Amino acid sequence: LGCALVAVGSPVVPLGSAVTASCTIWSNLCRGLEQGKVRITWMLDNEPMAGSQHQGPGGMEVSNLTLPQFNRTQAKLWCWVEWNGTKQRIGVAEIRAGYPPAKPFNLSCVLNLSDYGLTCQWEQGADSHLPTSVVLKCAGSRAQVVTGCTPQGGRSCCTVPRRLLQLYQQMEIWVSATNALGTAESERLYIDPMDVAKLDPPALQSIQSIPFQTDCVALAWEVAQSNAHMELQCELRYRAPEDPAWALVTGIVGQAGATQCCGFLFGVRYHFQMRCRRSSARGYWSEWSLGRNYTTHEKAPSGKLDAWWSTRPAGAGGQLEVQLRWKAPRQREANGRVLGYRVTLSPRRKGRDPPTVCNTTHTRCNFSAPVGTRRVYLSAYNAAGESAATEVVLLESKGQALAGLQAVPQGEHSLWVRWEAPPAPVAAYVLEWQRVSSEPSHCSACWQMEHDGAATTALIQDGIEPFQRYNISVYPFYKDAIGVPVHTAAYSKQKAPSYAPKLHLKSISKSDAELCWDPVPVEMQNGFITSYTIFWANSTAEVASAAVNPSLSSFVIRALKPSTLYKVHIMASTAAGGTNGTSLTLVTMVLDDIEIQFLFLTLGLIFVLLILLLICFQKNGRVKQQFWPSVPDPANSSLGKWVPAELQQEPLQVPGAREPGLAAISTVTVLERAAGKQPSTWGKEPATE
C-alpha cells in the first residue's frame, strides 16, 4: 500500500560488522491500521529479531533494529505488522556482507605469434563473497591506460588483442579487482610483448652417425616460419629407453640448422627432441619438437666378462666337467646387440682360431675338458665383431674362508650382505644366492662379482622377492685359489606364515596327550619360524598355552583332567606375526593304560575263579572226595564182628549198674595181622579205666 518503509544503514557491509535498520509505518495511509496500537516485529530470513518501537509525529510508528555482528554473506531483513490477528510483511531490505577484494598475484603473460595476442593469467586469492569486477589494464609509452581484456566465466586469464599492444616497446600491465568494499590491484608487470613471445618448435630433419668420429652424430633441423626472422637459441635433449633422465645439449644457434654431438654409446637407440627461444633469453621456450629416433652404429664388444665356474671329475676317461657362467656385458661395453658367446680352451692367435667348446646365446655353458685344464677363454660377439678373450683361471677351492657373514633387508627386492674379510689379501669376491624351496632349483644368474678386494659389503638385487628365503654364499678370490664359502640365510621382507601346521594326535591318556605335526613348507613360511605355540582349552574355558622350539615337530600336553574334552590348535609365528591353525578336538581317557591293564587282569582272575566254582558244582562228588575223604564206620567193619578164641573163653567183666565207677581192665590183648591176609579194616580196642 506504500504506507511503510524499511531502511538500512548500508546494504553491503564487511562480514562480521554491525548492521542498523529502521521500519517506518504511516498508520493513516494503511487501511485497517487507523485505529488501535500498531505492533512492529522483525525477521532476518526466518529468524525473529527484537527491535525497539516508538511513535513519531503525525501518527508515524518507527521500529529500530541493530544487529551487532552480521555473520551471513547474504540475508533478507523483513518488517512485519499485526493486522486482523495475523502478521503481514510490509517491507524488506537485502543485506550482503563480505570482504574487500584480495590482491591478485602471480601475473604472467605470453605472446602468441599466430595472432600476436597477449594472453595473461594470474591468481585471484581468497573469495570476497561479494560480486567482484576484474579487468586487465595496460598502459603504453604514452601513459594511456586502457582496459586490455575482461575475464569471462570467473576465469583468471584473458587475452589482450594485437590492436592494444605496442610491440618492441615496454608496456605496463596489471590486474584490477573491484567490489562494493574496495579495489585491489596486482603488482605492475613491465614487459616488451615480444620478450614474452612463445615460439613455435623447430622440426628435426635428419640424424646421422659420423663414420670418423664413431661416438658422434650430426643433426639437422628447420625452424618454424613464424620464427625465421628472429635470432634463436636452441636446446637438444636425448635419452635411451633405459635412461632415467634426459641428456641436455645447450648453446645451439638456431639459424645454423645443423650441429654435431658426441659421447653416444654404440648400437643404442636414442630419442631426440629440440626447442628454441629468442637469443635475448627473455622469452619463453617453445614446446619440444616432435621426437625422432635414431640407433647409433655398432662396433665389437669391449671390456672383460665376469665369469664364475664349478668343476668336477667326469669319471673314467680323464675328463673334467666344467660349468661356466658369466655376466652379459653392460651396454657401454656391449657396443650393440650381443649375438652370442664363444668358449675355447686356448687363446685366439693371428691366422688360427682355436677349437670352440661352446658357442651359445645364453650366459652359461657346460662342457668337458681334459683333466689338468686350468684356463679357458671367453669372448662375446655382435654384428660388428668379436671382443678380446677373457682369460678364466679355474682356481681350486682351498683358500681361507671368511671370518663371518650376515645379510639384512635393504628393501623388498634387495639384500645387503656384510662379511668380515680374512687376514690374507683378497683380489675379489663372488656372491651367490639361491631361493630355498621344497623342490630343487638352480638360478644360473643369481651371482655377482665384487672386484674390490677391500670391500666388506655388497647389495644383491637380481631375483630377490619378498617373503622368500635365500641361501647366500660368499667366496673370496685369492691370487692362486678360491676360499671355502661361508653361508647364511635371509629374507628381504617377512610376514606371518601362509598357514599353520595341521595337528595330529599321536597318543593320549587320562592326563597327557602327545601331538605331532608336519613342518610348514619353506615357501609358505614367509619368514623364519621363531616358535610354535600350542593352545588348549576345556569346556569351562580354562585356556593354557606353551611355546615350542621351531626345530621340534611334536609336543606332550601334561596335567590334563581325566575324561575331559579339549580343543587344541597351534600357531606358527615369525618376527612379523603369527597364523593360527585349525582346531583339534580330543577327549582324555578315564584310566591310564596300566590301570586298564590291572583292571582287565583283575576281571580275568575273577572270571577264572567263577569258572572254577562252576566246575566244582558240576563235579561235586569228586571234589568232596578230594577235600573231605570218607572215613569207614568201625561198627560195620569185619573186625567188629570177629572175636578171637581167647576172648571167647574170658568172662566179660561188666560193672554193675548199681555200682557206678571206672571199669577195671584186667587183660590187654594185642592182635597181630596174620601173614598174607589183608584185612578190610583195622582198629585198636579203646582203653578204659
Automatic annotation (TrEMBL):
One cellular-component annotation, GO: plasma membrane
UniProtKB keywords: Disulfide bond, Glycoprotein, Immunoglobulin domain, Membrane, Receptor, Repeat, Signal, Transmembrane, Transmembrane helix
Segments forming domain Fibronectin type-III: 301-400, 401-496, 497-593
Database matches in PANTHER family: INTERLEUKIN-27 RECEPTOR SUBUNIT ALPHA
Bilayer-crossing regions: 598-617
GO molecular function: cytokine receptor activity
Domain of life, per lineage: Eukaryota
Membrane topology according to the record: Single-pass type I membrane protein
Compartmental location: Membrane
InterPro entries tied to this protein: FN3_dom, FN3_sf, Hematopoietin_rcpt_Gp130_CS, Ig-like_dom_sf, Ig-like_fold, IgC2-like_lig-bd, Type1_Cytokine_Rcpt_Type2
Family: Belongs to the type I cytokine receptor family. Type 2 subfamily.
Record's protein name: CSF3R factor
Pfam families xref list: fn3 (PF00041), Lep_receptor_Ig (PF06328)
